[in-house]
Amino acid sequence: MGKRYTINHEVAYYECDINQNMTFPALLSVAIKASSDQSDELERGTDYINTLGITWVITQTEVTINRLPQVGEQIRIVTEPTEFNRYFCYRSYWVYDSEDTELLQIDMSFVLMDIENRKMSSVDAELMAPYESPQVKKIRRWPKIEKVEADQKQLYHVRYYDLDSNHHVNNAMYFNWLIDVLGYDFMTVHEPTYVNVKFDKEVLYGNDIESFYEVIEAEETKTRHEIRLGDQLACEANILWKKRS
């Protein structure tokens, strides 16, 4: 396994929803900061890889939730680059409360993208050496994401502040589009237990996207999501929910 790295964080009120739970965009941003800080420490940060003409892009995120952090809470984020192959790098994150209880786990896959032609670049073993994660041949198989079968949707326009330094929509922003469509009444009585998100295509400034969704009521409530750019799939997700106690 690779080198582990830890940061501490106090959950601010502006990172939380009306239920005082940390939002997915805030949670993802703090997790990415942990891995970015590690990369900077290992001299493999954004500035360094940009000199090589490449940048990191998240392709998949899977979150298993015991409890979401709450406003004012002191949390600890531990991250580990677990393994890599020719095209994908895998990293895990664990979030703990002040009593070292695991609140949630995040697993992600990343690819390197050529900044100029926006195409996937192969992963060089020398680039990954400081992380000490093993090189493998197999590609991880993620749980299958169920497709949206309904036609419920909402239109969103990509704004300037939706973009990050790579000039494309920050991955955390996708969660706003995925969840906003569920509405106030749903969100105030449900809390997530599991999330599986796949990022298929870049969304750029000025694009108009449609967020499709479907709510499946069963023993455990499930929502299916797709973000579409015209006839192209940009992002897809399945989320499991439970009723708030």
Automatic annotation (TrEMBL):
Residues 2-131 form the Acyl-ACP thioesterase N-terminal hotdog domain. The keyword Hydrolase applies. Keywords: Fatty acid biosynthesis, Fatty acid metabolism, Hydrolase, Lipid biosynthesis, Lipid metabolism, Transit peptide. One of its GO terms (molecular function) is acyl carrier activity. Residues 146-243 form the Acyl-ACP thioesterase-like C-terminal domain. CDD domains: 4HBT. Belongs to the acyl-ACP thioesterase family. This is Acyl-ACP thioesterase. It comes from Enterococcus raffinosus ATCC 49464.
